[in-house]
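Notebook entry, structure prediction.
Reason for the run: the old model in the group folder had no record of what sequence produced it. Starting over properly, with the input documented here first.
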Amino acid sequence: MEFDNLNNKTALHGIRIIEMTEALAGPYCAMMLGDLGADVIKVERPGNGDQARGWGPPFLEGESAYFLSVNRNKRSIELNIKNSDDLAVFHNLLETADVFVTNIPRMSSLKRAKIDPKTLQKINPRLIYAGISGYGHTGPKSNRGGYDIIAQGEAGLMTLTGEIDGGPMRFPTPMADITAGIYTTIGILGALYARDNSNNGTGKGQFLDVSLVDAQTTWLANIGGSYFATGNRPERLGNIHPTVTPYQPMRARDKMIIVGVGTERLWERLCDALGLDKEIQNDPRFSTNAARNLNRDDLIPILEEKLLLKDASEWVEIFVKKSIPSGPINFPDDTLTDEHIISRGMVVELEHPLIGIVKSIGNPINLSDHGPTYRRYPPTLGEHNEEIRNELRSKNDSNK
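New structure, fully documented this time:
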């Protein structure tokens, strides 16, 4: 299919992304750009492809559920860039591109393969080169490889995740990968604007360097602020918020419920909803957020004594009516079948030739115009080999 004529009403229509990444951060970034209308071509090793194609079970008709979750809206071509003919095809492909995304961590490896920023930007000066790696391409750890769990450990998050008396705990989804993918997407959009802005655009591409460790470190935002202010090492708090109370799960009659009270007005509403008398509401131990933080151990049992009188769903209904932020603690299957989540378009269904309907998590960017579209199922390995090669032949013939 010539370039990407599927939808000319998308935000990134006419933008071509060449993605040579594996696992999650790079594929997630490229998928988000594809959702916004870019033509994404995924370059994969012949025979095996993206390492995530082998990550499982579960597999559906031989396709990894992991791979399927982060690779919609793409075409796949197999190229062995160690082969001179395939490298020439790859360089030819880069001539047609706006953005190249890779997660090869070492600049020396990129130079040896002739796919480093300087080489590719000589081929295409307008190319935006996005490099995602574990530690980035500068700094004393720049040559190290890294997966999501390494970044979670390096960035200090594992020491803060879990119960107060527990050990280091990995967050169960790859949040460093996903965060790096999101930041890379933002960086690419910024670089495209800097290149093409009609008022002061440079007309040239640039190199974007995003690391998993940097991305994960941003999750320390308010915790880091407290450390900078006090010099004290942050402690693991479990479900407790370090500076807001109550802002945590608490026990209702049938199960836990989450209540978030971030203002004094919300504290008044919560006391009213729970039927707490003014003596409790105005108790010096609880009358301000700072006091509630210091006296959390006294306060939570008082609140839970009231919450235990009703089921969680009853309390959520009461709190919602009083505009008190609250919600249930769902299992993933509860979330992914929730009518609100479905109505927001957060469950995507695409027809796959081998599997039938493939579901994935939707793109949360809701634009009033030119928003995300879901046009392509996650490709099988090398599915578009001939299609893409034919496009390049047509381009070369037209340039003769």
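Summary: The CA atoms of residues 71 and 378 lie 5 Å apart.
The old model has been moved to the deprecated folder.
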